[in-house]
Design a protein that fits this description.
The structure is a single chain. The chain is flat, with a radius of gyration of 28 Å. It has helices spanning 2-19, 23-60, 64-67, 82-91, 93-124, 130-142, 149-157, 164-169, 180-187, 194-206, 210-218, 223-234, 236-252, 255-261, 267-270, 274-286, 294-329. Helix 4 (82-91) packs across helix 17 and helix 5 (93-124) crosses helix 10 (194-206). It folds into two domains: 1-47, no CATH class; 82-144 and 182-329, Orthogonal Bundle (MetI-like fold). It is built from 17 helices and no strands. It has 334 residues and is mainly α.
Amino acid sequence: MNRMNMKDKWKEIIIRNRKSGGYLLKKIISRKIYQILRAVLLFGLCFLILQPLFNKISLSFMQEKDLYDPTIIVLPRNFTLGNYKLVNSLISFWKALFNSIGISTLSSILQVISCTIVGYGFARFKFPFKNVWFACVLLVIIIPPQTIMSSLYLNFRFFDVFGLFKLVTGSTINLQNSIIPYMLLCLTCMGLKSGLYIFLIRQYFRGVPKELEEAAYVDGCGNFSTFLRIMLPDARPILTSCFLFAFVWQWTDSFYSKMFLGKTALLANKLPAITSLLAEYLTVINGVGSKPSIAYGQMMISTGMIMAIIPLLIIYIVAQRGFVESLSQTGLKM
């Protein structure tokens, strides 16, 4: 039965192709070629993205002698979990993990709150120098934070508000080695990538019909009540995306954490120091100064990176529905 249906289908295609002067066959061939090229391109892109990750996963389960065996390419011959145990002890993984989760979560929530208010204001209200202020937001996106590193350090090392602290106490306040600079930057929309979140949220709210707000005003809601009851519930997808972006960037950030948090154990600060920590560990074990080989050090770094990535994968799996929904709904309406 299926063969007869296929024969009838091909006869119909041949007849339609003759009637169209060969146009139908050309269209089918071009569509198939396009599908093949698209599949090859997607496979190549996925391979470029995933291949380094698979290599690091493979390295994390190898013993050191596997690194020098030319017959081993992907799969380890001597499977071991010792690398994870060693990295766990070197970087105090659980302590660094909980510190990273706490700081990343708190800073991400504060960033989303402040950027949502500012983005909604840019999308819906008119105020003096609006375009100038939005240009400043774009500058926050474009200019790397390293260019204002000295200013940030001096501002929080000798923190003062219009000279009031110095007037009352006789000296400024040193906010270094504390989480307060993080929180102040997030609340004032100067945190890591805050300009990008303001831009995304603004674009989302600009795409929401104004009739929703007008109907709320007719029912007696004010600006703030309309924002909380009408606009925020519909903006959950874009807020979820901004929270995920903020969390991931904060999770991997070492610039602000080194500047403000000092010696606080964070995964972003511990991972680059694995090689030096490994050298100290080998020195204690061997009793003399010992430096690990480059390959062995890279294997430990790969193991640490896999351990740091796992929490991010779990968060994405949990929140992927809202993340994908926001990508499909958020437009760049100018």
